[in-house]
Structures are given as structure tokens and as C-alpha cells.
Amino acid sequence: MEIETDIVFIDTGIFERENFLRGHKIKKISELSKSKAIKVKLTDITYREIKNRMRKNLETARVLYKKFGDTINVDAKILKNDADFNNFYPLKKLDTTAIFKKLEIQLDDFIKDSEIEIIDSSLADIQEVFEQYFEQKAPFHEGQKKDEFPDAFTLSAIKQWCKKNKKKVYIISTDNDIIKYKDEPSIIPLHDLTVFIDTVSRKHESEKIVQKIMDSITGQFDVVKNYLIENYNEEIGYQISQNYIHQFDVLEYDETPIIEKIELENIYFSDIGKDSSTVQIVVNIYLELNLSYIDYDMATYDREDDIWFNANIENLNLVLNTEFEFEASFEYEFDETELIDIQFTGIDNLEINDITNLGD
Questions:
Q1: 134, pLDDT greater than 60
Q2: What is the C-alpha separation between 63 and 48, in angstroms, rounded?
Q3: Under DSSP, is residue 51 helix (H, G, I), strand (E, B) or coil?
Q4: 138 with 179: CB under 8 angstroms?
Q5: Are 40 and 116 within 8 A, CB to CB?
Q6: What percent of the chain has pLDDT over 70?
């Protein structure tokens, strides 16, 4: 990928995927904006959508938090006998209104500190938007038309801004309808924030030096792989088990899954400094994991006593190919343009991207 412009619009879905302001990638976008490496912009529609998604996520959190509190209050009440756990009974009430007000302030501070410009959506061409709607052009298609109008007005506003300023821009989004938008050559849709950050970082450093660092980091993959196995085996098992909780009531899982092999898929720069770098590493981990779950197929439920009868505990052996992504840090030393030493220093932000069950 080659950078065609330093102007980038960020869509709502990117903020939501990054847990709004917590994700390391959105923080890196902020750093790049403050350093003038890129110019970040939002439409006022996106700004309002971000706040709306915050509200929805807080409501989901409120429901889950209450359910969790009710569950431990009954099913884990034995812990009340231990003074260290007394503060959990009852759980502190969740004030989502107060939390949302804090998040609003944090969002506004983030926009100001990151020098992000908000573009007025009144630039949008209303007639053009409705023509897209009636002709079912992107971002419209058969489905949730109400939800597609904000995207359409956002794209139209960006298009008119590009015409007015004679600029080309990126729009980074998780929305497939925006990614498919090809009607305006001045708007370049992207879905991969990692690749964008990597490319911008490379552009602002000497490509020759960057390549030396990348080659050395790639050469140290065995060191990284062994560190991952020794220090993150339990975390890998935990993250996989959380994906299966939605399918089964998981009782237990192997805290140390059997890792057969780890293959390097990709390495992307997320930060490059004079004496240290951070990279995003994507790996495929082939492993076996044992789960125990409750099988309700032959069970009956007593609503009055809130009890299941004849529920069986089943064991499940999973043979999986999993994709994980994580940050790896390296320190190095240069003699002018020659790399004379490089050391791997650690892993952070391990996240699962995908699971393929090889036993299916």
C-alpha cells in the first residue's frame, strides 16, 4: 500500500471496535495526528453516532452487570463467608448516565488533543443521497435502510468537502457498504486500520532503515514464539474458551492448551523510534483444547425452583487453527545506518481474531 493522501476520515465502527478511546490503534492515530503525519477528520454525523454507540454499549453493559450481580449473589454466595469478597455483595450500582457524561468529556478532550477537525454535514447533497437510495447504490442495499442514511449523508458530505478543497481522502470503516463505495475517486475506502498505521509509520522513517529493522524482527520470531508459549498459554486458552461460552455453558477448560505449532502470518509496524519499535504480529496457532460443558438436550427445567434436571456434563476435544494478534516490542542500536544489536523486550495486547475448528 502507498499513501495517496495524508487526510483520513474515521468512521464510527472503528471507534467501537477499538473500545472507543481505549484501543492502542486509535491512540496511535491520535499520535500520528498530533505529530502532523496525518490530518484526521470526522463528520458531525460520525461524532453524534460515536456518542450514540457509547449509550448503546453502556446499556448492554448495564444489563450484563446486573445479571452478573444477581448471579453471584445467589450462586456464589459462599464467598460471603470470606471478608475479602464482602464488597461484592451487593455490587456497586452502575450509574450509566454519569458514566456517559464522563465518556462525552473524554471524547471531546480526545478530539481536541488529537487536533481532529469536525466537518459540517450540511455540505451533503440531499438530492444525490435520495437518488442513491432509490437506485440502491452504495451505501444503500436491500435491508436496514434507516441505518444506511447516516452513512449516505456522511459520504456525501465528505465528497462535497473533497470537491470544495480539491483534496483526496481516506475513509477508514468497518462497514462493508462504505468499503464498497466506489462512485467518487477522491474518496478511498479502507477497512484495515493496522495496515494504514503501518504504511504511515514506514513513510515517515527511512525505508532502508525500516527494512533492516523489519528483517531483524522477523529473524527473531522464534524468540517471540517461545516467549508467547511460555507466558501466554493460559491467556490463549481463556480467550478461546470465551468464544465458546456463546455456544455452550462452559464449566471448565484446559488452562494450558496443547500448542502444536505457531506460524507467522504478518508483521506490521505500529510505532518506529530511533532505538525501539513496536510491531503488530499476526500468527496462526494450531492447538488442542478440552472443554467441559452442560448438555441440556435431554434436560427439563423446573421454573418454580429454577433448577435443571437430567442435564449432563459433556467433554469436548477441540482441534483448532486460531489467529491471534499482539504487540511485540524491540530495542535496538544503530551505528549510523548499520543495525548492530536488537533485543526482543515483551508482548502486550494479545487478542484473538479468528477460530477454525479443524475437527469439523
A1: no
A2: 23
A3: helix
A4: no
A5: yes
A6: 91
